[in-house]
Specification:
The complex is a heterodimer of chains A (about 500) and B (about 150). Chain A has about 500 residues and is mostly helical. In chain A, about 75% of the residues lie in helices and about 0% in strands. Chain B folds into two domains: about 55 residues; about 70 residues, no CATH class. Classes of the chains: A mainly alpha (about 500), B mainly alpha (about 150). At the A-B interface, helix 9, helix 10, helix 19, helix 20 and helix 21 of A face helix 1, helix 2, helix 3, helix 4 and helix 5 of B.
């Protein structure tokens, strides 16, 4: 119950102010199509430099939680999901809005988001210390395999092509080796003075997540934002609460599925929402109503996509393996304050860790309260033209990257990586494994070198890295994740070919 | 797959394969060997996967990624040129605030769907640019104390 001990920290004036700012700002940013939670959190990192570590994390955590929930506003009122996690919400949410039940749909989405989110954070609270305690016994070989596991799982599960996902991870691992070698001090791959000190993670994150979206907006041309915002009629919040309780089966399915999916690295909110929607439909006595504006569809999808937020941080806080791209960005936020998450985070920085987790718990409730009242404003913001959005994001990306170390090199790195990533994405490569490679590369290398030294002095490299049940367990998971993804890819291809032939 | 994406896939995967092979070559030829132990490990996998992707593209068996359509290229070209000039030259050459104001206004003018013949829409663009500059100055110069390179005009 250590988390209760730090609860008062959340209510310190500055911390609570930042929590409010992150929550309200996140709701508005989340409602804006094209601004994904990952990108929003990446653009916010430079604003945390002057803050205390826990304050910075409170801001980022609140923004993460609220952007996911805020995405439901544009999904319901505009039929444009604010984030991929809200795709399933559009199916019934927009249909409800068309029937004049927009306010009810928004209320249901925020209430179920908050309930799912609170459950997810409680899971984070109770699972994290147990896993962290266990992870204390990890040696260099285990940490090396864990880092490789982080890259391969995201590379295979988050990408539509296994080979391209793994290749993206390799590019990230290579980028992480640029600069001076830590042990010998040798120069490695320094082809430009901008990267002589290595590639800083923050400008890289901003470039990889923000710039491709900016260019994607350019690619749409002079497109007018003529999506019609449906006017919402008043609906009593108490009735919405009653409806959520009445639909407890959908809420439970959404919450449980979201929490379980959140624990699996690489499987994002989009999958959580869609799987929860599908399962809720299967178990519903009114399954025929799904897709026509049925409240269970909104409840299940929204409970799931917010329930996955807390558990997605478990691998990050205990093993320093970010389970999602947004968790990777949060890791960047920790690293700039000199805090390295891992098994000893709760021993060395209990105040930072617990205040952050507690703030996420309180943030869920604030998100629900403000969501119910800010939804109308957020929907108006969602209509900001793409031209303005692209220019704003580009400006913030340049200033944000520069402010990390006050060097132009970081701006060039941000620009170059962002440009490259846009074109790579056009050809099936994905930013998430590349970012994971970039972040986990130093962990993998440090533990590989340390492990090799121990191995050379003791049992030999092969024996050290390939024996022991934990090494084998991690290797089996790496191989299984790659194997499963290859099998799924081949199966889908076969299925598609058969359908093509039949058509 | 049509010829346009196929050729694009060959070019893209060719570039990646060249980078992969270069990284592998550097990793295996540079000294001290101990400093390149980890890069050797990853560059081997990198090179193999990159060649695999390149061969699949050459054989026209790439399944993922639609490449860039002619229309998308036409749409993004002006914005991309402005962005490249802004990021890689103007921000330092003209100063952050001057370059940002110019780039922001040009991008807004290029992609704003409002007609270019209307004086009202130009006024709106100027106002949005000015508003953004006030916010960015307030955030970075006043709140975060970020010292940017010297401006060309002030």
């Amino acid at each position: 119950m250590e988390f209760l001990f730090y609860m008062d920290e959340v209510f310190a004036p500055m911390n609570f102010g930042l929590l409010l700012l992150g929550t309200i700002g996140g709701l508005i940013l989340g409602a804006t199509p094209g601004l994904s939670p990952t990108m929003a959190v990446a653009l916010l990192i430079p604003f945390t430099f002057k803050l205390e570590p826990q304050q910075g994390l409170i801001l980022l955590g609140a923004a993460y939680t609220s952007t996911v929930a805020g995405g439901a506003v544009s999904a319901i009122l505009l039929k444009i999901p604010g984030a991929p996690a809200n795709i399933a919400t559009t199916l019934d949410g927009h249909a409800m809005a068309l029937k004049g039940e927009g306010a009810k749909a928004l209320q249901l989405s925020f209430i179920s988001s908050a309930i799912g989110g609170v459950f997810g954070v409680l899971l984070l609270i109770f699972l994290t210390p147990v896993l962290a305690q266990w992870a204390l016994s990890f040696g260099p070989s285990h940490l090396f395999w864990l880092a490789i596991l982080g890259v391969t799982v995201i590379g295979t599960l988050d990408s539509s092509s296994v080979v391209k996902g793994l290749l993206s991870g390799c590019i990230g691992l290579w980028l992480a080796t640029i600069g001076f070698d830590d042990i010998m001090g040798a120069q490695r791959f320094i082809f430009h003075s901008s990267v002589s000190g290595g590639i800083n993670v923050i400008p890289a994150l901003i470039g990889l997540f923000a710039i491709p979206q900016v260019i994607a907006m350019f690619a749409k041309g002079r497109q007018s934002n003529d999506a019609e915002v449906i006017v919402v009629q008043k609906h009593a919040v108490s009735e919405a609460f009653r409806e959520v309780i009445k639909r407890k089966k959908a809420l439970t399915i959404g919450t449980l599925i979201g929490s379980i999916i959140g624990l699996i690295p690489g499987v994002g909110g989009q999958i959580a929402g869609l799987v929860a929607y599908d399962q809720s439909k299967k178990f519903s006595s009114e399954s025929e109503k799904f897709g026509t504006g049925h409240s269970e569809g909104v409840i299940a999808a929204e409970a799931a996509n917010n329930a996955m937020v807390g558990p997605s941080l478990v691998p990050l806080l205990t093993l320093s393996i970010p389970g999602s791209p947004t968790a990777a960005v949060l890791l960047g936020g920790l690293l700039i304050h000199g805090i390295f998450p891992g098994p000893d985070l709760f021993i060395n920085y209990p105040k930072v860790a617990w205040t952050f987790i507690d703030s996420m718990l309180i943030g869920q409730i604030l998100m629900c309260v403000f969501g119910l009242y800010v939804a109308g404003l957020a929907a108006s913001v969602a209509r900001v033209p793409q031209s303005v959005m692209a220019a704003v994001v580009l400006g913030l990306a340049v200033f944000g990257s520069y402010s990390v170390q006050n060097t132009m090199g970081d701006v060039y790195v941000m620009g170059a990586l962002g440009l490259s990533m846009y074109f790579l994405e056009r050809f099936g490569f994905s930013a998430a494994p590349l970012v994971l490679g970039l972040i986990l590369g130093p962990i993998a290398e440090a533990n590989f070198i340390q492990g090799s030294m121990i191995a050379n002095a003791t049992v030999g490299t092969g024996t050290y890295f390939f024996t022991g049940w934990l090494n084998w367990l991690l290797i089996v998971i790496v191989v299984a994740s790659v194997g499963y993804s290859v099998w799924m890819e081949v199966r889908n291809r076969r299925y598609t070919s058969k359908e093509e032939i039949l058509s | 797959m049509s010829d346009l994406p196929r050729n694009q896939h060959i070019i893209a995967s060719g570039v990646i394969a060249t980078i992969g092979l270069t990284v592998a070559y550097i990793s295996f030829t540079q000294e001290p060997a101990a400093a390149f132990l980890f890069p050797r490990l990853i560059s081997s996998v990198f090179a193999v996967l990159a060649i695999w992707t390149f061969l699949k593209a050459v054989l026209g068996r790439t399944k993922v990624g639609n490449g860039l359509s002619g229309e998308a290229m036409k749409n993004l070209a002006p914005g991309l040129i402005v962005m490249v000039i802004y990021v890689f030259w103007a921000a330092k050459g003209l100063g952050f605030y001057t370059a940002t104001a110019i780039a922001f206004f040009i991008l807004l003018s290029l992609y704003d769907p409002a007609p270019h013949g209307e004086i009202k829409s130009w006024g709106k663009r100027v106002l949005i640019t000015a508003g953004f500059m006030v916010v960015i100055y307030g955030l970075f110069a006043q709140l975060l104390y970020v010292f940017t390179p010297r401006e060309i005009f002030f």
